[in-house]
Design goal:
The protein has 4 helices and 13 strands. It has helices at about 1-35, 155-160, 195-205, 205-210; strands spanning about 40-45, 50-55, 60-65, 70-75, 75-80, 85, 90-100, 105-110, 120, 125-130, 135-140, 170-175, 185-190. The strands form 3 sheets. Strands 5, 6, 7, 8 and 9 form a 5-stranded antiparallel sheet that branches. It has a 4-stranded antiparallel sheet with strand order 1-2-3-4, with no helix packed on it. A 4-stranded antiparallel sheet has the order 10-11-12-13, with no helix packed on it.
Amino acid sequence: MNKAKFNMNSLLVIIIVFLTLWFFVNVWVFNNAKNVFIINDNHAIEGTDLWIHYGTVEPSGIYKGRINTMELELEGTYGYEWGLAIVGNDLYLNEYLTSDLGMTFCNLVRVDMNTFEKETVAEDTILRGRCASGELVCLGDCLLPSNEPTINSLCKLYGMSSKAIHPESNTVTVFYIDPMTGETVYVRQDTAVMTKVFQKRYLDRTLEEVRQ
């Protein structure tokens, strides 16, 4: 009887030790996995001494200076590939924010390139570029492609709580912003916004041509 009890206690000790080791190994792997993929990507902002930096070692954000000695001026994840515009001392660009549930949101922000003060111009808005007459062309009432229902299962849940965004709808709002005043000067609905048609329809033409 005592021998059976001893064997059972020994088995429990072994199981506890094994689970403890398994727990610490998984924690170690998780903490060190961040260092496996090192990101150090820099994009120069033409006409300035500023950079958009994406990194896992140094914070992502807007840096200033030469590539080897540049210093962080404004931390955050900012877009470079889709939309970026310089108007006087102001820098218009997309800022990406990630929620705890894996949803990625985009706001249009304006950054003073002298003081690096940031102002949100429009929430849930994607800057796509400038049209031929200089206005900022933006997309509203839509989610980033990474949030589509087929990719992110939480997308539909978010859509239920948002009055403006309908994940399953193909229609989005295209609107033009005067970069000098930050005011919206034209709005229309469209469905061909994530295709090559968008470039010819909105970016390659003036606002007056689009109105017509």
